[in-house]
Amino acid sequence: MQATIICPSYNSKKVIGRALQSWAEQDYPRDKYEILIVDNFSTDGTKDIVEEFARKYPNIKYVSDRS
């Protein structure tokens, strides 16, 4: 079974990178969980940061109506 962490986001450019880095550094096996960043039309570059992490870590996903 895979766990899902859902993180709502809006204009979180200042903090989203640190949060994702913290999750990426966990000892828990990445294939056991996924992180969904659900964005509410951010305009500050949040999407770019999340997508950069998603390229490195396949268990991180960006979700938005604009995806």
Can you summarize this structure?
This protein has 67 residues and is α/β, with parallel strands linked by helices. It has two helices and three strands; from the N terminus they run βαβαβ.
Question: What's the structural blueprint in terms of helices and strands?
Answer:
Layout: E1 3-9, H1 13-24, E2 33-39, H2 46-56, E3 60-63
Parallel strand pairs: 1-2, 2-3
Helix pairs in contact: 1-2
> What Rg is obtained from the alpha carbons, in whole angstroms?
11 Å
- As a percent range, the share of strand residues is 25-35%
Number of strands: 3
Helix content: 25-40%
Give the count of helical stretches: 2
Which term fits the overall shape? globular
What string, H for helix and E for strand, traces the elements in order? EHEHE
The end-to-end distance, rounded to whole angstroms, is 26 Å
The multimeric state of the shown protein is single chain
Structural class: alpha/beta
Q: Output the strand order for the largest sheet.
A: 1-2-3
Question: pLDDT average, as an integer?
Answer: 93
Number of domains: 1
State the low-pLDDT regions, or none. none
**Major beta-sheet overview:** 3 strands, parallel
Keywords:
67 residues; alpha/beta; three-stranded parallel beta sheet; 34% helix
Please give a structural write-up:
By secondary structure, this protein is of the alpha/beta class. It has one domain (3-63). It contains two helices and three strands; from the N terminus they run βαβαβ. It has helices spanning 13-24, 46-56; strands at residues 3-9, 33-39, 60-63. It has a three-stranded parallel sheet. α1 links the parallel β1 (3-9) and β2. α1 runs parallel beside α2. The longest helix has 12 residues, at 13-24. 22% of the residues are buried. The model has no long low-confidence stretch (mean pLDDT 93).
